[in-house]
Amino acid sequence: MRRLTLAAAGLNRRQLLVGMTGAATTLLPLRPSYGKAGAIERIVSVGGAITEVVFALGAGNKVVAVDTTSCYPLQATAALPKVGYLRTLATEGLLSMKPDLILLDADAGPTDVLDQLKRLGAPVVHFTERPSAQSVADKILFVGTALQQADKAAGIAATFRQDLATVAASIKLLLQRPRVLFLMNAGTTGLRGAGSGTAAAEMITLAGGRNAFAASAGYKTISAEAALIADPEAIVMMSQTLDELGGRDGVAKLPVLAKTKAAQEGRIFGFDGNYLLGFGPRTAHAIAAFATVLHPQDDIVAPPPRPWTMA
Amino acid sequence: MSQGTLRHRPGVLLALIAAGLVLSLVLATAIGPLMVPPGEIGRVFAEALGILPANSTDVTLRDIVLDLRLPRALSGMCIGALLAIGGSVMQGLFRNPLADPGLIGVSSGAALAVASFIVFGGSIAFLPAGLRYYGMPVAAFAGGLIVVLLIQRLAYRDGRTDVPTMLLAGIAVTAVVMAGIGLLTFISDDTQLRSMTFWSLGSLGGVGWASMVVLAPVAAVVLLLSLRFADVLDALMLGEREAYSIGFEVERAKRVMVLSVAAGVGAAVAFTGLIGFVGIVAPHMTRLLLGAAHRRLLIGSSLLGGLLVVLADTACRVIVAPAELPIGIITSLIGAPFFLVLLLHQQRQGYPGS
Questions:
Q1: Domain B3-349 annotated CATH 1.10.3470.10
Q2: Domain boundaries, chain B
Q3: Contacts of residue B58 in chain A, CB cutoff 8 Å?
């Protein structure tokens, strides 16, 4: 709230950024060549969810480059130059886009590069809250403040919170909590199950399921025996992985999974990775879509489509 | 001029390699994701040297050239030199053209230490924030050195370091160390795992003047130290016993050389992660160009190693701009085929080292 008051007080951007240090931010001093007082015209947006927020705020036309995790809205982000993967950014690459604002999501790095940007006084704002459904509203407010669109952001954040509450209320009423296994394809080392503490685990819980692989922490390679012990009633993976493994039938026939209930009943589902695990403004809708798949017999109340979910 | 005549004039060739190195440094500071006319770069340097008045160039460009490109290029030169010297010395010591510092455990030891630091470093609460920048390099350096010392100790018996035993001990210890890395990989979370992967691919993205302060003196000391042992390395080509009977203190030389290689390569790896192939390609190319005498080889390969790393890093920065490629990909992708061509071409004329 403190941030919003500052914006409302009509302070300039530099003071605004100073004010934001109280929140989950890293403040970096601005130099005249970067932070020309006034409107922000050239944004580098790093992190899929951050980019979604920028577009939701209607500032997509000011984005000059994104990272490789920014894939939504699809057409707009595909056409933009890529500054690399968010954890392997390059200092000169970022600066060469002549940004007047570099928005970084929590996972941005490496630390050396962040330190260099800091030392050079680049106009960086870093959202450091760990990705989760709870942090999305904060993220929207944070980006809104950085873009001098705090009021608009407050509206979107409120709508998001409302949508999240709508879905949560609907899921709370469900009687069944099916065991769900989320699988990541790790190439030659086999399939990795999402254990506790992962984004997938959080989404499973939010969608009214139980993580069948909760006994492990992080993403761990899963054996046939472990899969059988977990005995998932539904298996979920990224659509891309599902296609690579030969679709629903292909996955059901994998020796590792063949004996599980999910494989035998053909309850194997693919989701877009960014949509399901990105924790951006579309997350409430993603939870509803996920829950609908996990609870085919129940009616899940999905929030109405929003402008930022229809791009 | 044919290659044959040039090879009889090593001085000229050495000067050419040195000129190439200087050219690569100029290139590395002149180009990057932010493309500007060369004149502008010249103006930045003119301003830095006080020829032009202060603030007469764009501040962003000045930062990029003087604070990113220049220290990165110079660090790249030191790192390439250290890797190449490491390779030359190891090949001489083991009398095996395929030897590299990895054989005595420098890289695997450093990798284990870095993986430990990534996985457990977060829980080291007493580490002051100011030291964080040096935390990982120090861990890498120490890890490399500890493993080398262990291998050397294992190969030490009856008052001498047995080189074949050292080779075998190196393989065995490296296997254990790799298992440790595997275990850390297993218990690491997603973020830590990614950090480890990127480290193993190598990147000069994080180097700056702070790393240059460490690398430049280390490179100078390691080069001078290795040159002191150039005669011993030459004598070792005849065999260890022979070198001893000529009158060299072979044992002491072996110990000092192994340690200085461990320290040098450890320092390079500490700041950049693993950069493959330079330690093999640079000495070989130098041997093909200048012959196998070690004084020439050490000087030539350190220049050539620097040249290769600076060029490879420049390519990494530019090819996929504004993103960056890991340097290990480029050094192997360009270095290996080039090396093969040289090798096959030269084999028909007789390999100078044999």
A1: yes
A2: 3-349
A3: 33
